[in-house]
Specification:
This protein is of the alpha+beta class. The chain folds into two domains: 83 residues, no CATH class; 129 residues, Immunoglobulin-like, CATH 2.60.40. The chain contains four helices and twelve strands. Strand 4 and strand 5 form a beta hairpin.
Length: 255
């Protein structure tokens, strides 16, 4: 009489990896949300790989589930990268970025007043020399830049060396939007990028214990909103791109 063997059980890691892979795949094509999908896919892929190793060693029978979890994780990551690139290319063709027209500072107001006075005294037949384009790429913290769509943006303050998980450090930046125009304007934390000392630019980073975090939304005429955005440690400059599909920044602040 043959001896019967007890069948090995499935793996909880394989099931968890598969579930996370499914969630990541379903949300991977959604803009903004798919940033979170990317990390879900990474976690699911790691769990599925661990489960697959266990299945190959004969610890359980969930080899198929493990492989499916790995495949879904890889596919989800690819979809996130492809869709973000596609959305950026498509919308960049139809979206015009707002250009800065003025920055609020007493020195500029004085300069404008002096220029106006000298212009009124000049003979009418003389052409007024063109003023050089103002540079808003190296603003100081506390300065405001006004855009031609009526939106004003200010970097209010900076909080460096914020401790987070795994002894990691991040930089917190407090910003304010004010809509002085007639039409509603959008605001979004993904309109911002941080730049390190080597010139590498990166999007905002996730901070689990964030307080008063800036979320995306619409700002009515006359309204304002203030919130915090977070960047990796080593960020020495923050750049505002008017919207996340622009190729060039409208303004930059040195931290």
């Amino acid at each position: 009489m043959d001896q019967q063997t007890t069948p090995k059980q499935s793996s909880g890691l394989a099931i968890a990896g598969l579930v996370l892979g499914i969630i990541a795949a379903v949300t991977s094509f959604l803009p903004i949300i798919n940033n979170l999908s990317f990390f879900i896919a990474l976690v699911g892929g790691v769990l599925a790989i661990i489960a697959l190793v266990g299945a190959l060693r004969g610890h359980h029978t969930a080899k198929g589930l493990s492989i499916a979890g790995v495949v879904l994780a890889v596919v989800s990551i690819v979809i996130v990268l492809v869709t973000q690139s596609a959305y950026s290319a498509a919308l960049n063709k139809v979206t015009e970025g707002s250009k800065p027209v003025a920055a609020s500072s007493s020195s500029e107001a004085t300069s404008s007043s002096a220029s106006s006075s000298s212009s009124s005294e000049a003979p009418k037949n003389e052409e007024k020399p063109k003023e050089p384009a103002k540079d808003y790429s190296n603003l100081a913290v506390g300065e405001t830049v006004a855009l031609d769509n009526g939106l004003s943006v200010t970097v209010n303050s900076v909080e460096p060396n914020i401790a987070t998980y795994g002894d990691k450090k991040i930089v917190g930046v407090n910003v304010t939007y004010k809509n002085d125009g007639k039409d509603s304007q959008s605001f979004n934390p993904y309109d911002w990028k941080g730049e390190d000392a080597n010139g590498a630019q990166r999007s905002t980073t996730f901070y689990m214990d964030a307080k008063d975090e800036l979320n995306s939304g619409k700002l009515s005429a006359g309204g304002s909103v203030t919130g915090n955005i977070y960047f990796e440690d080593g960020t020495v400059k923050v750049l505002y791109y008017s919207n996340m599909f622009n190729d060039s920044a409208a303004a930059g602040w040195k931290l």
